[in-house]
Protein backbone atom coordinates (compact mmCIF):
# COMPACT_ATOMS: atom_id res chain seq x y z
CA UNK A 1 0.00 0.00 0.00
CA UNK A 2 1.47 3.37 -0.93
CA UNK A 3 2.53 5.56 1.97
CA UNK A 4 0.98 9.02 2.11
CA UNK A 5 3.05 12.05 3.05
CA UNK A 6 0.82 12.83 6.04
CA UNK A 7 1.32 9.26 7.31
CA UNK A 8 5.09 9.76 7.28
CA UNK A 9 4.59 13.01 9.18
CA UNK A 10 2.43 11.26 11.77
CA UNK A 11 5.05 8.58 12.36
CA UNK A 12 7.73 11.18 12.86
CA UNK A 13 5.56 13.30 15.10
CA UNK A 14 4.79 10.27 17.28
CA UNK A 15 8.41 9.11 17.46
CA UNK A 16 10.07 12.54 17.63
CA UNK A 17 10.41 12.88 21.41
CA UNK A 18 11.57 9.31 21.91
CA UNK A 19 14.09 9.54 19.10
CA UNK A 20 15.51 12.97 19.99
CA UNK A 21 15.80 11.90 23.64
CA UNK A 22 17.73 8.76 22.70
CA UNK A 23 20.08 10.69 20.44
CA UNK A 24 20.68 13.37 23.07
CA UNK A 25 21.86 10.62 25.42
CA UNK A 26 24.24 9.24 22.80
CA UNK A 27 25.62 12.49 21.51
CA UNK A 28 25.03 14.94 24.35
CA UNK A 29 23.84 17.59 21.91
CA UNK A 30 20.23 18.65 21.31
CA UNK A 31 20.85 20.43 18.00
CA UNK A 32 22.71 17.48 16.56
CA UNK A 33 19.92 15.12 17.67
CA UNK A 34 17.24 17.32 16.07
CA UNK A 35 19.16 17.71 12.83
CA UNK A 36 19.70 13.96 12.61
CA UNK A 37 15.97 13.24 13.06
CA UNK A 38 15.20 15.90 10.43
CA UNK A 39 17.60 14.20 8.00
CA UNK A 40 15.99 10.84 8.69
CA UNK A 41 12.63 12.45 7.86
CA UNK A 42 13.98 13.72 4.53
CA UNK A 43 15.20 10.22 3.69
CA UNK A 44 11.85 8.68 4.67
CA UNK A 45 9.95 11.13 2.47
CA UNK A 46 12.17 10.12 -0.46
CA UNK A 47 12.05 6.36 0.17
CA UNK A 48 8.91 5.24 1.95
CA UNK A 49 6.46 6.05 -0.86
CA UNK A 50 8.33 3.55 -3.06
CA UNK A 51 9.39 0.94 -0.49
CA UNK A 52 6.36 1.13 1.75
CA UNK A 53 6.50 1.50 5.54
CA UNK A 54 9.41 -0.29 7.23
CA UNK A 55 8.26 -3.11 9.59
CA UNK A 56 9.03 -0.95 12.63
CA UNK A 57 8.97 2.74 11.63
CA UNK A 58 10.07 3.91 15.10
CA UNK A 59 13.19 1.73 15.08
CA UNK A 60 13.92 2.74 11.48
CA UNK A 61 13.78 6.45 12.38
CA UNK A 62 16.06 6.05 15.41
CA UNK A 63 18.61 3.90 13.55
CA UNK A 64 18.66 6.15 10.49
CA UNK A 65 18.97 9.31 12.58
CA UNK A 66 21.72 7.74 14.65
CA UNK A 67 23.66 6.79 11.53
CA UNK A 68 23.28 10.31 10.14
CA UNK A 69 24.62 11.74 13.39
CA UNK A 70 27.60 9.38 13.33
CA UNK A 71 28.32 10.40 9.73
CA UNK A 72 28.18 13.99 10.89
CA UNK A 73 30.67 13.20 13.66
CA UNK A 74 32.99 11.47 11.15
CA UNK A 75 32.97 14.55 8.94
CA UNK A 76 33.76 16.76 11.92
CA UNK A 77 36.45 14.34 13.13
CA UNK A 78 38.12 14.65 9.74
CA UNK A 79 38.29 18.37 10.48
CA UNK A 80 40.03 17.56 13.75
CA UNK A 81 37.14 18.45 15.99
CA UNK A 82 38.29 17.17 19.37
CA UNK A 83 34.84 16.22 20.64
CA UNK A 84 34.03 14.26 17.53
CA UNK A 85 37.30 12.38 17.73
CA UNK A 86 36.75 11.58 21.36
CA UNK A 87 33.26 10.31 20.57
CA UNK A 88 34.48 8.06 17.76
CA UNK A 89 37.20 6.69 20.02
CA UNK A 90 35.17 6.11 23.18
CA UNK A 91 31.54 6.94 22.61
CA UNK A 92 30.37 4.50 20.00
CA UNK A 93 30.33 1.55 22.39
CA UNK A 94 27.57 3.26 24.26
CA UNK A 95 25.28 3.20 21.22
CA UNK A 96 24.10 -0.32 21.97
CA UNK A 97 22.10 -2.45 19.58
CA UNK A 98 18.84 -1.32 18.05
CA UNK A 99 16.94 -3.98 19.97
CA UNK A 100 17.72 -2.20 23.20
CA UNK A 101 16.16 0.99 21.89
CA UNK A 102 12.70 -0.54 22.07
CA UNK A 103 12.69 -1.30 25.80
CA UNK A 104 13.15 0.41 29.18
CA UNK A 105 16.16 2.71 28.81
CA UNK A 106 14.54 4.59 25.93
CA UNK A 107 11.61 5.60 28.11
CA UNK A 108 14.05 6.93 30.67
CA UNK A 109 15.55 9.08 27.93
CA UNK A 110 12.28 10.93 27.43
CA UNK A 111 11.94 11.41 31.16
CA UNK A 112 15.48 12.80 31.32
CA UNK A 113 14.71 15.15 28.46
CA UNK A 114 11.53 16.53 29.99
CA UNK A 115 13.40 17.32 33.22
CA UNK A 116 16.05 19.12 31.17
CA UNK A 117 13.38 21.11 29.30
CA UNK A 118 11.66 22.08 32.58
CA UNK A 119 14.86 22.91 34.49
CA UNK A 120 14.34 25.83 36.92
CA UNK A 121 17.30 27.68 35.36
CA UNK A 122 15.09 28.21 32.27
CA UNK A 123 12.19 30.64 32.38
CA UNK A 124 8.64 29.29 32.16
CA UNK A 125 8.10 30.41 28.57
CA UNK A 126 11.27 28.64 27.48
CA UNK A 127 10.29 25.52 29.43
CA UNK A 128 6.92 25.36 27.69
CA UNK A 129 8.37 25.98 24.22
CA UNK A 130 11.19 23.45 24.61
CA UNK A 131 8.86 20.77 25.95
CA UNK A 132 6.47 21.20 23.02
CA UNK A 133 9.33 21.26 20.55
CA UNK A 134 11.55 18.43 21.85
CA UNK A 135 9.03 16.07 23.46
CA UNK A 136 5.97 16.96 21.40
CA UNK A 137 7.77 17.28 18.08
CA UNK A 138 5.94 20.51 17.23
CA UNK A 139 7.51 22.85 14.71
CA UNK A 140 8.59 26.26 15.95
CA UNK A 141 5.99 27.87 13.69
CA UNK A 142 3.23 25.73 15.26
CA UNK A 143 4.32 26.66 18.79
CA UNK A 144 4.46 30.34 17.82
CA UNK A 145 0.93 30.15 16.41
CA UNK A 146 -0.35 28.35 19.50
CA UNK A 147 1.00 31.06 21.81
CA UNK A 148 0.17 33.92 19.46
CA UNK A 149 3.71 35.26 19.22
CA UNK A 150 5.66 35.99 16.04
CA UNK A 151 7.61 32.99 14.75
CA UNK A 152 10.91 34.88 15.01
CA UNK A 153 10.25 35.55 18.70
CA UNK A 154 9.52 31.89 19.40
CA UNK A 155 12.54 30.75 17.37
CA UNK A 156 14.76 33.09 19.35
CA UNK A 157 13.30 31.84 22.64
CA UNK A 158 14.04 28.23 21.70
CA UNK A 159 17.53 28.94 20.35
CA UNK A 160 18.43 30.90 23.49
CA UNK A 161 17.17 28.13 25.78
CA UNK A 162 19.10 25.45 23.87
CA UNK A 163 22.23 27.60 24.02
CA UNK A 164 21.86 27.96 27.77
CA UNK A 165 21.41 24.21 28.23
CA UNK A 166 24.65 23.63 26.37
CA UNK A 167 26.76 26.49 27.77
CA UNK A 168 25.69 26.16 31.39
CA UNK A 169 25.73 22.33 31.23
CA UNK A 170 22.13 21.88 32.38
CA UNK A 171 22.14 18.15 33.15
CA UNK A 172 20.29 15.49 31.22
CA UNK A 173 18.97 13.30 33.99
CA UNK A 174 16.06 12.60 36.27
CA UNK A 175 16.68 14.51 39.54
CA UNK A 176 17.50 12.62 42.72
CA UNK A 177 14.93 12.00 45.45
CA UNK A 178 15.80 15.15 47.37
CA UNK A 179 15.08 17.50 44.45
CA UNK A 180 12.39 15.41 42.77
CA UNK A 181 9.27 16.93 44.38
CA UNK A 182 10.20 20.49 43.31
CA UNK A 183 11.43 19.50 39.91
CA UNK A 184 8.45 17.25 39.16
CA UNK A 185 6.15 20.07 40.17
CA UNK A 186 7.74 22.27 37.47
CA UNK A 187 7.16 19.54 34.85
CA UNK A 188 3.52 19.17 35.91
CA UNK A 189 3.05 22.95 35.79
CA UNK A 190 4.43 23.13 32.26
CA UNK A 191 2.08 20.39 31.01
CA UNK A 192 -0.85 22.02 32.81
CA UNK A 193 0.01 25.41 31.27
CA UNK A 194 0.08 23.86 27.79
CA UNK A 195 -3.37 22.38 28.41
CA UNK A 196 -4.72 25.60 29.89
CA UNK A 197 -3.47 27.69 26.99
CA UNK A 198 -5.41 25.34 24.73
CA UNK A 199 -8.47 25.32 27.01
CA UNK A 200 -8.95 29.05 27.37
CA UNK A 201 -6.69 30.84 24.97
CA UNK A 202 -5.72 34.11 26.60
CA UNK A 203 -6.80 36.06 23.55
CA UNK A 204 -8.37 35.47 20.17
CA UNK A 205 -11.66 34.07 18.99
CA UNK A 206 -11.89 30.30 19.51
CA UNK A 207 -12.46 29.15 23.07
CA UNK A 208 -10.53 25.89 22.81
CA UNK A 209 -7.47 25.08 20.77
CA UNK A 210 -7.81 21.33 20.69
CA UNK A 211 -4.34 20.59 19.41
CA UNK A 212 -2.69 22.09 22.50
CA UNK A 213 -5.07 20.26 24.84
CA UNK A 214 -4.44 16.98 23.08
CA UNK A 215 -0.68 17.54 23.10
CA UNK A 216 -0.79 18.24 26.85
CA UNK A 217 -2.77 15.04 27.42
CA UNK A 218 -0.25 13.10 25.33
CA UNK A 219 2.61 14.51 27.45
CA UNK A 220 0.70 13.82 30.68
CA UNK A 221 0.18 10.22 29.50
CA UNK A 222 3.89 9.79 28.82
CA UNK A 223 4.76 11.24 32.23
CA UNK A 224 2.19 9.09 34.06
CA UNK A 225 3.50 5.99 32.27
CA UNK A 226 7.11 6.86 33.08
CA UNK A 227 6.44 7.79 36.72
CA UNK A 228 3.65 5.41 37.80
CA UNK A 229 4.67 5.82 41.46
CA UNK A 230 4.05 9.58 41.47
CA UNK A 231 0.38 10.12 42.40
CA UNK A 232 0.47 13.76 41.26
CA UNK A 233 1.51 12.68 37.75
CA UNK A 234 -1.54 10.40 37.65
CA UNK A 235 -3.64 13.18 39.18
CA UNK A 236 -2.64 15.62 36.45
CA UNK A 237 -3.53 13.13 33.71
CA UNK A 238 -6.89 12.43 35.39
CA UNK A 239 -7.62 16.17 35.71
CA UNK A 240 -6.86 16.87 32.04
CA UNK A 241 -8.92 13.88 30.85
CA UNK A 242 -11.94 14.86 32.96
CA UNK A 243 -11.87 18.49 31.82
CA UNK A 244 -11.28 17.52 28.20
CA UNK A 245 -14.22 15.09 28.35
CA UNK A 246 -16.56 18.09 28.67
CA UNK A 247 -15.09 19.82 25.63
CA UNK A 248 -17.95 18.92 23.22
CA UNK A 249 -20.46 20.50 25.61
CA UNK A 250 -18.43 23.54 26.57
CA UNK A 251 -19.09 25.62 23.50
CA UNK A 252 -22.02 25.87 21.12
CA UNK A 253 -21.73 25.68 17.34
CA UNK A 254 -21.31 29.47 17.25
CA UNK A 255 -18.36 29.07 19.69
CA UNK A 256 -20.28 30.65 22.55
CA UNK A 257 -19.26 29.52 26.04
CA UNK A 258 -21.57 27.12 27.93
CA UNK A 259 -20.96 26.90 31.68
CA UNK A 260 -20.93 23.61 33.56
CA UNK A 261 -24.49 23.82 35.00
CA UNK A 262 -25.96 24.54 31.55
CA UNK A 263 -24.01 21.93 29.59
CA UNK A 264 -25.74 19.11 27.71
CA UNK A 265 -24.20 16.25 29.65
CA UNK A 266 -25.05 13.69 26.98
CA UNK A 267 -22.30 15.31 24.90
CA UNK A 268 -19.61 14.50 27.47
CA UNK A 269 -17.03 11.95 26.36
CA UNK A 270 -17.85 8.91 28.51
CA UNK A 271 -14.66 7.08 27.62
CA UNK A 272 -12.42 9.92 28.82
CA UNK A 273 -14.54 10.27 31.98
CA UNK A 274 -14.25 6.54 32.73
CA UNK A 275 -10.47 6.69 32.30
CA UNK A 276 -10.18 9.83 34.43
CA UNK A 277 -12.40 8.44 37.19
CA UNK A 278 -10.43 5.21 37.28
CA UNK A 279 -7.23 7.22 37.75
CA UNK A 280 -8.87 9.25 40.55
CA UNK A 281 -9.86 6.02 42.32
CA UNK A 282 -6.29 4.73 41.96
CA UNK A 283 -5.05 8.00 43.50
CA UNK A 284 -7.53 7.74 46.40
CA UNK A 285 -6.19 4.28 47.21
CA UNK A 286 -2.68 5.75 47.51
CA UNK A 287 -3.97 8.27 50.03
CA UNK A 288 -1.24 10.83 49.25
CA UNK A 289 -3.39 13.75 48.12
CA UNK A 290 -1.88 16.62 46.16
CA UNK A 291 -3.30 19.64 44.31
CA UNK A 292 -3.75 17.89 40.93
CA UNK A 293 -5.32 14.81 42.47
CA UNK A 294 -7.77 16.94 44.46
CA UNK A 295 -8.76 19.01 41.42
CA UNK A 296 -9.20 15.78 39.48
CA UNK A 297 -11.41 14.45 42.28
CA UNK A 298 -13.58 17.61 42.13
CA UNK A 299 -14.04 17.06 38.41
CA UNK A 300 -14.76 13.36 38.96
CA UNK A 301 -17.62 14.35 41.29
CA UNK A 302 -19.02 16.68 38.60
CA UNK A 303 -18.75 13.87 36.05
CA UNK A 304 -20.78 11.61 38.33
CA UNK A 305 -23.85 13.85 38.28
CA UNK A 306 -26.24 12.98 35.46
CA UNK A 307 -27.82 16.39 35.98
CA UNK A 308 -26.35 19.61 37.42
CA UNK A 309 -28.99 19.55 40.18
CA UNK A 310 -27.72 16.15 41.32
CA UNK A 311 -24.16 17.42 41.96
CA UNK A 312 -22.78 16.33 45.34
CA UNK A 313 -21.68 19.81 46.46
CA UNK A 314 -20.94 18.64 49.99
CA UNK A 315 -18.24 16.32 48.69
CA UNK A 316 -16.87 19.02 46.38
CA UNK A 317 -16.67 21.46 49.29
CA UNK A 318 -14.75 18.88 51.35
CA UNK A 319 -12.27 18.42 48.50
CA UNK A 320 -11.84 22.20 48.19
CA UNK A 321 -11.24 22.44 51.94
CA UNK A 322 -8.37 19.96 51.52
CA UNK A 323 -7.09 21.77 48.46
CA UNK A 324 -7.18 25.13 50.22
CA UNK A 325 -5.23 23.65 53.17
CA UNK A 326 -2.54 22.38 50.75
CA UNK A 327 -2.44 25.43 48.47
CA UNK A 328 -3.92 28.45 50.25
CA UNK A 329 -4.13 30.73 47.20
CA UNK A 330 -6.85 33.29 46.41
CA UNK A 331 -7.82 31.44 43.21
CA UNK A 332 -8.44 28.19 45.13
CA UNK A 333 -10.44 30.17 47.70
CA UNK A 334 -12.51 31.63 44.85
CA UNK A 335 -13.25 28.20 43.37
CA UNK A 336 -14.13 26.91 46.82
CA UNK A 337 -16.64 29.76 47.20
CA UNK A 338 -18.64 28.36 44.27
CA UNK A 339 -19.18 25.20 46.31
CA UNK A 340 -19.87 27.28 49.45
CA UNK A 341 -22.66 29.08 47.58
CA UNK A 342 -24.31 25.78 46.74
CA UNK A 343 -23.96 24.35 50.25
CA UNK A 344 -24.51 27.45 52.44
CA UNK A 345 -26.00 30.04 50.09
CA UNK A 346 -24.69 33.08 48.15
CA UNK A 347 -24.48 35.37 51.20
CA UNK A 348 -21.94 33.13 52.95
CA UNK A 349 -20.01 32.62 49.70
CA UNK A 350 -19.83 36.36 49.05
CA UNK A 351 -18.45 36.97 52.54
CA UNK A 352 -15.85 34.25 51.91
CA UNK A 353 -14.46 35.99 48.82
CA UNK A 354 -14.86 39.61 49.93
CA UNK A 355 -11.34 39.79 51.30
CA UNK A 356 -9.60 38.08 48.36
CA UNK A 357 -6.92 40.05 46.57
CA UNK A 358 -8.06 39.21 43.05
CA UNK A 359 -9.11 42.57 41.58
CA UNK A 360 -8.49 42.46 37.83
CA UNK A 361 -9.01 38.68 37.56
CA UNK A 362 -12.06 38.34 35.33
CA UNK A 363 -13.35 35.14 36.95
CA UNK A 364 -13.31 36.84 40.37
CA UNK A 365 -15.52 39.65 39.12
CA UNK A 366 -17.74 37.19 37.25
CA UNK A 367 -18.17 35.09 40.42
CA UNK A 368 -19.02 38.19 42.49
CA UNK A 369 -21.47 39.33 39.83
CA UNK A 370 -23.20 35.95 39.88
CA UNK A 371 -23.49 35.89 43.69
CA UNK A 372 -24.75 39.49 43.79
CA UNK A 373 -27.37 38.68 41.14
CA UNK A 374 -28.57 35.72 43.19
CA UNK A 375 -28.89 38.04 46.20
CA UNK A 376 -30.97 40.48 44.16
CA UNK A 377 -28.25 43.17 44.25
CA UNK A 378 -28.46 43.74 40.49
CA UNK A 379 -26.86 47.19 40.36
CA UNK A 380 -23.70 45.98 42.08
CA UNK A 381 -23.69 42.87 39.88
CA UNK A 382 -23.61 44.97 36.70
CA UNK A 383 -20.60 46.90 38.03
CA UNK A 384 -18.81 43.58 38.61
CA UNK A 385 -19.66 42.37 35.09
CA UNK A 386 -18.11 45.57 33.75
CA UNK A 387 -14.93 44.87 35.74
CA UNK A 388 -14.86 41.29 34.41
CA UNK A 389 -15.26 42.53 30.83
CA UNK A 390 -12.34 44.89 31.26
CA UNK A 391 -10.16 41.95 32.35
CA UNK A 392 -10.45 39.39 29.53
CA UNK A 393 -9.64 39.51 25.83
CA UNK A 394 -11.08 36.10 24.93
CA UNK A 395 -13.97 36.70 22.51
CA UNK A 396 -16.09 33.75 23.70
CA UNK A 397 -15.71 34.71 27.35
CA UNK A 398 -16.49 38.34 26.57
CA UNK A 399 -19.66 37.41 24.73
CA UNK A 400 -20.76 35.22 27.62
CA UNK A 401 -20.16 38.04 30.11
CA UNK A 402 -22.00 40.54 27.90
CA UNK A 403 -25.04 38.24 27.82
CA UNK A 404 -25.01 37.77 31.58
CA UNK A 405 -24.71 41.50 32.08
CA UNK A 406 -27.63 42.18 29.73
CA UNK A 407 -29.68 39.51 31.50
CA UNK A 408 -28.97 41.06 34.92
CA UNK A 409 -29.97 44.50 33.64
CA UNK A 410 -33.39 43.12 32.71
CA UNK A 411 -34.05 41.69 36.20
CA UNK B 1 33.52 19.60 33.95
CA UNK B 2 32.43 23.15 33.34
CA UNK B 3 33.86 26.22 35.03
CA UNK B 4 31.41 28.74 36.46
CA UNK B 5 31.71 32.26 37.78
CA UNK B 6 29.76 32.67 41.00
CA UNK B 7 29.53 36.40 41.47
CA UNK B 8 28.22 38.25 44.47
CA UNK B 9 26.54 41.57 43.82
CA UNK B 10 25.39 43.93 46.49
CA UNK B 11 23.72 47.30 46.66
CA UNK B 12 25.62 48.59 49.67
CA UNK B 13 28.41 50.48 47.92
CA UNK B 14 30.92 51.57 50.55
CA UNK B 15 28.40 51.28 53.36
CA UNK B 16 28.31 48.29 55.68
CA UNK B 17 25.37 46.02 54.85
CA UNK B 18 24.75 44.26 58.13
CA UNK B 19 25.51 44.50 61.83
CA UNK B 20 29.15 43.96 62.69
CA UNK B 21 28.54 40.70 64.51
CA UNK B 22 26.71 39.15 61.62
CA UNK B 23 29.37 40.43 59.22
CA UNK B 24 32.02 38.68 61.33
CA UNK B 25 30.01 35.45 61.30
CA UNK B 26 29.52 35.78 57.52
CA UNK B 27 33.29 36.09 57.01
CA UNK B 28 33.77 32.93 59.06
CA UNK B 29 31.13 31.09 57.04
CA UNK B 30 32.71 32.16 53.77
CA UNK B 31 36.13 30.99 54.98
CA UNK B 32 34.63 27.62 55.91
CA UNK B 33 32.92 27.37 52.52
CA UNK B 34 36.21 28.18 50.76
CA UNK B 35 37.95 25.41 52.70
CA UNK B 36 35.19 22.97 51.68
CA UNK B 37 35.51 24.01 48.02
CA UNK B 38 39.25 23.33 48.11
CA UNK B 39 38.74 19.96 49.82
CA UNK B 40 36.07 18.84 47.32
CA UNK B 41 38.17 19.84 44.32
CA UNK B 42 35.62 22.38 43.01
CA UNK B 43 37.85 25.35 43.85
CA UNK B 44 39.55 27.26 41.05
CA UNK B 45 39.90 30.79 42.42
CA UNK B 46 38.04 33.24 44.60
CA UNK B 47 38.34 36.69 46.05
CA UNK B 48 36.55 39.52 47.78
CA UNK B 49 36.87 43.01 46.37
CA UNK B 50 37.45 46.37 48.02
CA UNK B 51 34.68 48.96 47.74
CA UNK B 52 33.66 50.16 44.25
CA UNK B 53 35.08 53.61 45.09
CA UNK B 54 38.57 52.08 44.99
CA UNK B 55 38.13 51.10 41.33
CA UNK B 56 39.85 52.77 38.38
CA UNK B 57 38.74 52.43 34.76
CA UNK B 58 41.23 52.40 31.89
CA UNK B 59 40.05 52.82 28.32
CA UNK B 60 41.60 53.43 24.93
CA UNK B 61 40.56 56.72 23.31
CA UNK B 62 39.89 57.30 19.62
CA UNK B 63 43.46 58.50 19.14
CA UNK B 64 44.82 55.35 20.79
CA UNK B 65 45.71 57.27 23.93
CA UNK B 66 45.10 55.75 27.37
CA UNK B 67 42.38 57.46 29.40
CA UNK B 68 42.25 56.73 33.11
CA UNK B 69 39.21 57.64 35.19
CA UNK B 70 38.27 57.31 38.84
CA UNK B 71 35.42 55.08 39.96
CA UNK B 72 33.66 51.92 38.89
CA UNK B 73 32.78 51.31 35.22
CA UNK B 74 29.04 51.06 35.73
CA UNK B 75 27.33 53.71 37.84
CA UNK B 76 24.74 51.26 39.11
CA UNK B 77 23.55 50.66 42.62
CA UNK B 78 24.52 46.96 42.49
CA UNK B 79 28.24 46.35 42.29
CA UNK B 80 30.39 43.25 42.19
CA UNK B 81 31.58 42.56 45.71
CA UNK B 82 33.40 39.29 45.25
CA UNK B 83 33.38 36.05 43.32
CA UNK B 84 34.30 32.41 43.13
CA UNK B 85 35.45 30.54 40.05
CA UNK B 86 34.49 26.92 40.50
CA UNK B 87 34.64 23.76 38.47
CA UNK B 88 31.57 21.49 38.59
CA UNK B 89 30.09 18.49 36.77
CA UNK B 90 26.99 20.34 35.60
CA UNK B 91 24.67 23.24 36.41
CA UNK B 92 22.87 21.35 39.19
CA UNK B 93 26.18 20.82 41.00
CA UNK B 94 27.12 24.48 40.44
CA UNK B 95 23.72 25.70 41.73
CA UNK B 96 24.11 23.57 44.82
CA UNK B 97 27.50 25.17 45.56
CA UNK B 98 26.10 28.63 44.77
CA UNK B 99 23.34 28.08 47.32
CA UNK B 100 25.94 27.29 49.97
CA UNK B 101 27.91 30.38 48.95
CA UNK B 102 24.79 32.56 49.11
CA UNK B 103 24.02 31.25 52.58
CA UNK B 104 27.58 31.96 53.74
CA UNK B 105 27.81 35.52 52.38
CA UNK B 106 24.12 36.39 52.98
CA UNK B 107 23.76 37.75 49.44
CA UNK B 108 22.38 36.54 46.09
CA UNK B 109 24.90 34.72 43.90
CA UNK B 110 24.82 34.77 40.10
CA UNK B 111 25.99 31.60 38.34
CA UNK B 112 27.45 31.97 34.87
CA UNK B 113 29.36 29.44 32.78
CA UNK B 114 32.77 30.22 31.31
CA UNK B 115 33.38 29.72 27.61
CA UNK B 116 35.48 26.64 27.05
Structural overview:
Helix content of chain A is 72%, strand content 1%. Chain A is mainly alpha-helical. Chain A has a two-stranded parallel ribbon. Chain A is elongated, with a radius of gyration of 24 Å. The relative contact order of chain A is 0.06. A 4-stranded antiparallel sheet of chain B has the order 2-5-1-6, with helices on one face. In chain B, strands 3-4 form a two-stranded antiparallel sheet. The longest helix of chain B has 21 residues, at 20-40. In chain B, 19% of the residues are buried. Chain A binds chain B through residues 119, 121, 167-171, 175, 179, and chain B through 2, 4, 88-92, 94-95, 111-113, 115.
Features:
heterodimer, A: mainly alpha, two-stranded parallel ribbon, 1% strand, B: 116 residues, 4-stranded antiparallel beta sheet, two-stranded antiparallel ribbon, 2 helices, 6 strands, 31% helix
In short, what is this structure?
The complex is a heterodimer of chains A (411) and B (116). Chain A has 411 residues and is mainly α.
Low-confidence stretches of chain B: none
What Rg of chain A is obtained from the alpha carbons, in whole angstroms? 24 Å
Characterize the largest beta sheet of chain A: strand count, sense, and whether it forms a barrel.
2 strands, parallel
Query: What is the helical fraction of chain B, as a range of percent?
Result: 25-40%
Mean pLDDT of chain A: 88
Query: What is the subunit organization of this protein?
Result: heterodimer
Largest sheet of chain B: 4 strands, antiparallel
Poorly predicted ranges of chain A (pLDDT <50, ≥5 residues)?
A: 95-106
- Please report which band the strand proportion of chain A falls in: under 5%, 5-15%, 15-25%, 25-35%, 35-45% or over 45%: under 5%
Q: By helix and strand content of chain B, what is the structural category?
A: alpha+beta
> What number is the mean pLDDT of chain B?
91
What separation lies between the terminal Cα atoms of chain B? 10 Å
Tell me the overall shape of chain B: globular
Q: Please provide the ordered H/E string of secondary-structure elements of chain B.
A: EHEEEEHE
Amino acid sequence: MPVQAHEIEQHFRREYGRCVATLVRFFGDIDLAEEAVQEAFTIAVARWPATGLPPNPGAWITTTAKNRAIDQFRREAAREDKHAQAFLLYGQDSLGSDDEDQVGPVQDDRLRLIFTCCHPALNRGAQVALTLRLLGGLQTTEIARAFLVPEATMAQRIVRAKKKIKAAAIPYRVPGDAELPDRLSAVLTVIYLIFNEGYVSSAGAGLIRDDLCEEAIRLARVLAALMPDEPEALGLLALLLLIHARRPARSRADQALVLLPDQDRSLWDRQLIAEGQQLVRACLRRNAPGPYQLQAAVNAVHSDAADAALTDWGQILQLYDQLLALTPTPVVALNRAVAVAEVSGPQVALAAIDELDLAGYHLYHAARADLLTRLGRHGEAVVEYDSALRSTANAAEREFLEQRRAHTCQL
Amino acid sequence: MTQYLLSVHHAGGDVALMPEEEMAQSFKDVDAFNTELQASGNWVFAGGLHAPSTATVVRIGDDSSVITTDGPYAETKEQLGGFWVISADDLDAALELAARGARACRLPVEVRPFQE
